[in-house]
């Protein structure tokens, strides 16, 4: 199998091609083609399969041997195709070889710059030595004390780093991820499914056996299929566009790689019976749902997926039989976060309210029970006060509310075993006492046993339940307890299979212990960047002095990696899993174009809308608590016909902004006080109860969000972020707090901000706005990526009028002259800040500055001009402002609170209906494309075409052209060329803007021989072009 390249010489009008061939005349060929204009400006790339006998490949400029295709990724304005360049054999299990991926390559489909790249020339994703971490910390300290020599060296180091960055491959972080040794695949076996899962499929089938002829890509478990998103375009073509013959040839070629991440170890065991060799294996599959590094992925997500979730399968193989025992591990299944840099302690924050968490908690365990049956939770956290105690209490509270399953085969059990307290009192050997609480279920739930036959598996025994083990990171303690439990089950299995003679030998213990220690090391390295702690206990059965020092060094490295390197690893993971929001550069082929176009036309069949009322409130409270104030007048809209679905409250100056207050204030207590008081008042004035969605404060700036209890299941993906702008970005006295969420299928972001003060500080306020806009960071999306954006807070923009004049106008009841001198309105009109945002009509008096406790504007020496510093601005589609006003009866602060009521039409996409419609369109379109017949005239046409469309099968790739040859496709207006674009022509050519070439083309005109109009260029022309702007298909 190899990958080859065809890059045009200067002046030639052929696009670049990247070709992957299975090396078999019967096998398929995958061709990636660049789409470019004549001036070599890239427009995108396309993928297409050919039969090897029909490909007529152009001359290539070079090739490399590969082991298979991982898929495609988009980085910046380029599309890369990923392949496996090197691998290492792990062993053979169940008759199928297993390989570890050790080196990958990523080649551009658009540019040839990296065709000759040395894919060994990058640092492996390994933990730095302890000395490296110490050197880095020392360098940071020297910067703080102003060491000039160190500063100069750092400047030189930065210059060197910048030069290296220019030469670095755009996919270097992705290549490090795949080449670190934690990805595995088998060309003959689906590693995403355990023997237990496959045996259950066999048991539920009409026969007692299940054949192995089905392609793994038709049955793979997406939870563990790590390159699923990378292969998505290819798998779509495989499913919808290839003939059965070519699809079978593709599957048999082993071109496509199904990769899992985790650990696989396979070792033989000694046996006195030469006819019954024994093999022992461990397969740990890391889930790619809620995947990420240590401080970037904690707890649970809205779909019930837990971070660092691993299914570990211990396999025993002997002649004619395979046995398997499965356990799972995963983070504590509540919404919680942990800050990275914590020198002492491991403080955690429960980031969602109880009611919101309960929904995700229920999804998690329902999915586990449906997949595995009985679940026995083994919680190894400390039950004392502190971070782990907080998580234990939350876990147990949700378990107490979890409904009991009506299915007698799906019971839930719970054991809390304080691992640290136990081993502290009796040593690590004492941890084995946990088995006393697990033994009954280990015996009753047994293991899976199948008889292996040619191309078939026949179930004999089936496991009935799993242990779900967790600690804080689900690494060191969890690995040790899983080792202890699996040892019991492996010994039981070997005895019942008549192979008890291998037990108790030094070789068996050595093999088994080292497999589990390796498993712990690799899972730890994936999540934290270092090997596991306490591996000396697993490898040798006891903790050693050398192991103690080894653990200390790993702890230092973990601190360094998790706080300074994990960001790049997380970005690589998100790209691989397709979670980055980018405009796709892969140009749709004929079938995809038809399906997406018709799907867009039938959008009304699977998309519905729901009105969502959102209450927005902002108040600078000047360090006061509202306990004696009737804030219900502020929180209750006068125009709302029902309680708003969402409530967002921004509070500025939770404390007075003085140095003494910043030092003495208990911000956590203040946040809790406001959080509870706001919720209490909301539930007093509402006919439908509210629950806390999430709250966060950045010192004196707080954002509090609530949701109606009957709408809990409609809000997902809640994240919060802060951005400091005070003291040059170091101080939290000014800045912004943002909340990102998705209501149904509409994304929303809410930002409360406190901008720079001072009448003349207009530019500083503008700068603060842009700093916050760019600085608020959410997972895989920025502020601008949301459908609805709302800003509210004390923006501090003033009225640029003399104080006496402004007050005179106010005394006459005329606010118009003040509004015409409002700084924010002027800056918006000039595009300097909040460009594109809207604001409701202001018909209320300025909200600042009053004498505390009075209705009188500022009488101090500064005599500040009355101004509307407290504002609400918004941006989005399908949006209506229902109310915008202030409350002048709350006098405790020098500001008056402001509120707004917005109504948004939120989208709801019925994914099941969409899939059914998409499948139906695909089935209808596929035979028409293959036959070249026109589509039904009832089908809506694309863009400016008024006739049905003919889609022809793409031709073989053309031979390399000479400079003097006529271009294959020419744009008549300016000579631009798009070499591989699958151009569509109408059934009645004379009625189209596309003009057929002269008769020299021949009688049977095909699309690749037709000159086309320039409006087909992506994002050029006007809205009649189906490839223009939002119309692009």
Automatic annotation (TrEMBL):
<dbReference type="Pfam" id="PF02383">
    <property type="entry name" value="Syja_N"/>
</dbReference>
<dbReference type="InterPro" id="IPR046985">
    <property type="entry name" value="IP5"/>
</dbReference>
<dbReference type="GO" id="GO:0004439">
    <property type="term" value="F:phosphatidylinositol-4,5-bisphosphate 5-phosphatase activity"/>
</dbReference>
<dbReference type="InterPro" id="IPR002013">
    <property type="entry name" value="SAC_dom"/>
</dbReference>
<feature type="domain" description="SAC">
    <location>
        <begin position="174"/>
        <end position="529"/>
    </location>
</feature>
<dbReference type="Pfam" id="PF22669">
    <property type="entry name" value="Exo_endo_phos2"/>
</dbReference>
<dbReference type="GO" id="GO:0046856">
    <property type="term" value="P:phosphatidylinositol dephosphorylation"/>
</dbReference>
<keyword id="KW-0378">Hydrolase</keyword>
<comment type="similarity">
    <text>In the central section; belongs to the inositol 1,4,5-trisphosphate 5-phosphatase family.</text>
</comment>
<dbReference type="InterPro" id="IPR036691">
    <property type="entry name" value="Endo/exonu/phosph_ase_sf"/>
</dbReference>
<comment type="similarity">
    <text>Belongs to the synaptojanin family.</text>
</comment>
<protein>
    <recommendedName>
        <fullName>phosphoinositide 5-phosphatase</fullName>
        <ecNumber>3.1.3.36</ecNumber>
    </recommendedName>
</protein>
<dbReference type="InterPro" id="IPR000300">
    <property type="entry name" value="IPPc"/>
</dbReference>
